[in-house]
Model the fold of this input.
Amino acid sequence: MCGILAVLGCCEDSQAKRVRVLELSRRLKHRGPDWSGIYQFKDSYLSHQRLAIVDPASGDQPLFNEDKSIVVTVNGEIYNHEELRKQLSPKHNFRTGSDCDVIAHLYEEHGENFVDMLDGMFSFVLLDTHDNSFIVARDAMGITSLYIGWGLDGSVWIASELKGLNDECEHFHAFPPGMLYSSKTSDFKRWYNPHWFLEKTPSTPYDPLVLRRAFENAVIKRLMTDVPFGVLLSGGLDSSLVASVTARHLEGTKAAEQWGKQLHTFCVGIEGSPDLEAAREVANYLGTLHHEFHFTVQDGIDAIEEVIYHIETYDVTTIRASTPMFLMSRKIKSLGVKMVLSGEGSDEIFGGYLYFHKAPNKDEFHRETCHKVKALHQYDCLRANKATSAWGLEARVPFLDKEFVNVAMSIDPEWKMIKKDEGRIEKWILRQAFDDEDRPYLPKHILYRQKEQFSDGVGYSWIDGLKAHAQQHVTDKMMLNASNIYPHNTPMTKEAYYYRMIFERFFPQNSARLTVPGGASIACSTARAVAWDASWSKNLDPSGRAAIGVHNSGYEKHSAPVADVSAKIIDNVPLGNGSIPQLAIRG
Done:
């Protein structure tokens, strides 16, 4: 992933302003360590920190049309860029081989209405110097992170991360996915309008071959790369399918010609964790070159401050899952790998979280999946994007391919419903689509492995250790005053309070705290779904193990107190003074 920062319509065009923009842009250098660029036109600045994935030699940004009257700074990948180039009139001359180079030329031919033609993940700012107007757009699902803010001088600020603009803007918020902002109207308009956005219950019959084909196409198009890559493999259904399809279709691709036919896979966990064992088995089955990284509870706790600084949230489940992903990303980048495929999005689309076992009917089931997919940019997309980008690593997510999402969200949700008496567990239709007796994609027990949330799968002691650590650093007295200290999204647990304290030190503005979602949750549910089971309101926790009666290792089966066990591991680790701790991964 790259880092973009744009300041548009500011009150000055001095050298001091340019220096300040460069200074703020450097806060995003971790996202794009390969090259930096800046372009100034009158009172507007477009800057870029590049992570070179496609055309590393000549694709530096900002990008331009032929006469440099259209300027673009982009973060993302456009998978259908070659097809789009062919659709343009012959008059266009491209300066680079970058997949993003097509954006300026599409704007020349189609104006603001070209965004829906893009197939990929992206955030961009386009400046038209003819009239000094600009547009900003973010991809359909919010895979790439993006924020918008406004300065007191009337300027508009755009940045890939909060830290690029929070100190300069009077007000800011997350740029909504699937939207376009135009300076001509000073307003947002939705460019992504799929049928499922209306949340009406669909009725398309389930066709396993159609679903399988759509996912394989989504994976294949994401093999577009000029750098070494691999797959994040937890051993769960989603990442295992990504790895299996990638391994099956890698041969004959340009990527295989450049980097070899054997796929690299990566897994992280505490020694003895469920994910490590399952991932090892899948890797052996697929014949991948597998890299396994171990971390301890203490390693994770030491990294929490840096994780919150990079992830820019105080959401409990996001921080729990981001930390091992953050640690793993550093190790992956050290091996020379710059791009990975990952399995985010499947649970939201297919109702894979364990609380979906209690969905009362197919209408509620479908409505909940719609809400979950629409909120991905605040949770799993944010985690996958920022945890990897912290180390200059790009994550691609085939489950969130536009076409695949449209196919999957059109299926009658009766097929997605979990029916134990009929042998249908969570994500049954996805499992069935890849249950091929002639050419198996995965071992049966992996294909039908129970859903394990990433923060649980890396080792159950990870969450238990986090809770024990927070217990040591947040007192009962602090919790009594929590609603007065933090009236918005008041932390309800000591773990949540602990994360909130760290977040507020890095991002003290009210606008910053408003970017983080809140509300009751059970096993990653929305607040609405908590009502599906009366007992859940007494056991609110985003861990999958909180789905008592559903998870095979639910909290009711592991009731031993964790504080006594973890106290030996995590003794007197201070909150710190804002310094960034060093990391250590053992493996």
In short: Residues 80 and 471 are 50 Å apart (CA to CA). The mean pLDDT is 90. Residues 316-334 form the longest helix (19 residues).
